[in-house]
Amino acid sequence: MNRKDGGVLQGRVVAVTGASKGIGLGVVQKLTAEGATVIGGARDVSGVVCEGATFLPLDVTDAASVDAFAEQARRAGVDALVNNAGVGVFKPVQDITEADYRRVMDTNVLGTLLMTRALLPHFQALGRGQVVNVTSDVSARTFATGALYTASKYAQRAVTQALASEGHAYGLRVTEIRPGMVDTFFGDTQQGEEYKAEWLKPDDVAGAVLYALSAPAHVRIDEVLLHPVVQDVAF
Ligand code: NJP
Fold it and tell me: Which family is annotated (predicted)?
C-alpha cells in the first residue's frame, strides 16, 4: 500500500528492473509502502499491479527497450535505479551452451550495463543519484555447476565497484545487494528446494534495498550480504 503520510522515501522516484515477481516485486511493494514512486519493468508486466507503481515492458538485453524505459523513468523524475533483473543456469562447465552463456551474461551483465548507462547522464546532471545492484552472495565465490551464473555475478560485482569509483566525483552512490537463497521463481534448478520455506523472502531483500535507498545523504552503503539462517555459511 502506498503511504500518503510521509514514508522515508516520500518524494523519491525509483526505477526497478525485473519488477514483475520475486525480489523485484517485493522491492516495488516495499519502496511504494515507504512513499516512493516506482517505475517497474519486466518483459511481461501483464496483470502486475501495485499502488504507487507504474509497470512498463522492459527487456534489459535490448538497448532500444532499455532506452524507452529510461526515457519514461527520466520523465517521472527518477533519482535511483535498482538493477534486479536476472536469470540463472546451473550446469557443469562441459554442458554450458553458447545460448546459455548469452542468456545469462546478456541479462545479468549486459542488462546491468545498458540500464545503468541509460540513466547515468541524468544522475550526473542531478548531481546525485543511487544505483543498487542485486547481485548475489555468490558474486565472490563459486561452486560446482555455478560457473556461468557466478561468472555473471562476479562480473556484475566488478561493474558495481568500478561504477562506484567513477560516480564518486558527481555524488553517485552505488550499492551491491548480495542475497543468499531467496524463495522466488528463480533458477533452472531444484537445488535446496526442500528448505525453501526457510529461505529469505523477497521482502527481506527488499529491506536491504530500502536500507541503502533511505541512508542519509552523507552515507554510502557499499554492500549488504544477507543469508537465511538455514543456509550454511560455506555453501
Ligand atoms: O528471480 P525471479 P529473483 N529483462 O525469476 C525479470 C538474484 N538472486 O527475484 O522479464 C527484464 O523470481 C523477470 O520478469 P520477465 C538474481 O540473480 C536471486 O529470484 O517477465 N526483466 C522477473 O520479473 C536476480 O538478479 C537469488 O521474465 C527480466 C525477474 O526478472 C535477482 O536476484 C539468490 C529479464 C526475475 O524474477 C532477482 O531474482 C541470489 C529481462 N531480460 C541472487 N529477464 C534467489 N532467488 O535465490 C528476467 O543470490 N527478467
Answer: Belongs to the short-chain dehydrogenases/reductases (SDR) family.
pTM of the predicted model over 0.70: yes
Answer whether 58 contacts ligand 1 (Cβ < 6 A).
yes
Residue 101 designated active-site: no
pLDDT at 196: 80
C-alpha cell at 48: 502486475
Instruction: Give the distance (Å) from ligand 1 centre to CA of residue 18.
Output: 6
| Residue spans of the chain under pLDDT 50 | none
Q: Which domains does the chain have, with CATH numbers?
A: 13-226 (3.40.50.720)
Q: Which of 46, 105, 184 to mutate to test the pocket of ligand 1 (most atoms within 8 A of CB)?
A: 184
Rounded-to-integer distance, Cα 156 and Cα 109, Å: 6
Reading the block at residue 151, the C-alpha cell is 561468472
Hey, is 136 helix, strand or coil? coil
Q: How many CA atoms lie within 13 A of 98 on its CB side?
A: 0
Phi, psi of 232 (to 5 degrees): -60, 140
- The pLDDT value given to residue 68: 98
